[in-house]
Amino acid sequence: MRNEKINIGKSTALEFSDVFPMLVFATCMGLILVHLYSRFHLALDEGIYLTSAHRVAQGQAPYRDFFALTGPLDFWLHGLVFKILGPSLAAAQAVLACELALLCAAIYWLTARFTTNWAAASTAALYLAMLLTSPYQLYVNHRWDSNTLIVLAAAALWAGVESQKRKFLLIAGVLAGA
After folding, report:
1. How far apart are alpha carbons 74 and 49 in whole angstroms?
2. H or E stretch including 9?
3. Which residues pair with 7 in a beta bridge?
4. Which helix (H) or strand (E) covers residue 48, if one does?
5. Which residues pair with 166 in a beta bridge?
6. Mean pLDDT for the chain?
7. What does the longest C-alpha to C-alpha distance in the chain come to?
8. Is 106:152 a contact under the CB 8 Å cutoff?
9. pLDDT tens by residue, 23-74
């Protein structure tokens, strides 16, 4: 099944192993969004990130205009989304859902490199189930950004090792550094 080709145009063919991570991402994104939007819980530190992101969307800069305990990436990312979609909890949760779906897709992709597609899909589904049934709520904070970036860095590193293309190694370094 790994070598099965899917034609999507006149000269472009994608392999099943290239398309399935996209399907995993889309499915997980939908399920996580439903999970996040169906619940509301006040979190102790979520407001720190959302308020700081709102300030970034208004043109302020972390460390210059306001104090921050963490790196600025979370504020910049959510600030950009707030600038585009407007400041709202739904916009912030959409970023979180995208990060978690990227984690699931990267877990599938990395696992598929070493096992079968079935085992990789099972691993990604298990991780998604763990996310959706965890007794701890999924909050907007810097930890999800960091987790997503390091798993994507590992996937890019492995893609570079497999393909012997330096661009993937550069991407891995940038993601790990971020």
Report:
1. 7
2. none
3. 13
4. helix 46-57
5. none
6. 84
7. 54
8. yes
9. 888 888 888 888 877 666 666 667 788 888 999 999 999 989 988 888 888 8
